[in-house]
Write a structure and sequence with these properties.
single chain, Thrombin, subunit H, 6-stranded antiparallel β-barrel, two-stranded antiparallel ribbon, 9 strands, 12% helix
Length: 146
């Protein structure tokens, strides 16, 4: 079992076997995330979580409970300030970050209990091409500045 080290309130998992299997660079950010399970009837509101890291392939979130199980499909809505400035579409003209969200369908890839909290990994399965391009540009710019 790997140990998890908390650095700047973002879980870091250096000994995790998933690290070697990752195809995408992960950006450590703590964005607010809303997750809604795709189910009938659709809930009006989702579960509020916190992003630990994000990549082109998915997002790791942290929450107080484990409301989702592996394999469940959810809608993910991540508030990413200034994301629209990276959009190839018409949204890049908006400089207000009040409604800048990355939205995707995602499957629950894994769930882990850590120190009384839960880490949940979501794998993106359906993303609009403009949003995908915006996220890719955003992540590239973030790593270029560091």
């Amino acid at each position: 079992m790997s140990t998890i080290r908390m650095t700047n309130a973002v879980p870091v998992m250096p000994g995790d076997s998933d690290v070697e299997q990752r195809s995408f660079q992960r950006l450590l950010k703590t964005y607010p995330v809303e997750v809604i399970k795709l189910d009938f009837p659709m809930p009006e509101t989702g579960v509020q979580m916190r992003c630990c890291d994000i990549s082109m392939g998915g997002v790791c979130t942290e929450t107080d409970s484990a409301p989702y199980a592996m394999g469940e499909t959810c809608q993910i809505k991540i508030h990413i300030p200034l994301l629209n400035k990276c959009s190839p579409g018409f949204f890049k003209v908006y400089e207000n970050d009040a409604e800048q969200y990355f939205t995707a369908l995602a499957d629950v890839a894994w769930v882990r209990s850590v120190a009384g909290r839960f880490l949940i990994g979501f794998r993106f399965i359906n993303v609009h091409s403009d949003q995908e391009t915006a996220l890719e540009t955003f992540i590239q710019r973030a790593f270029a500045q560091s």
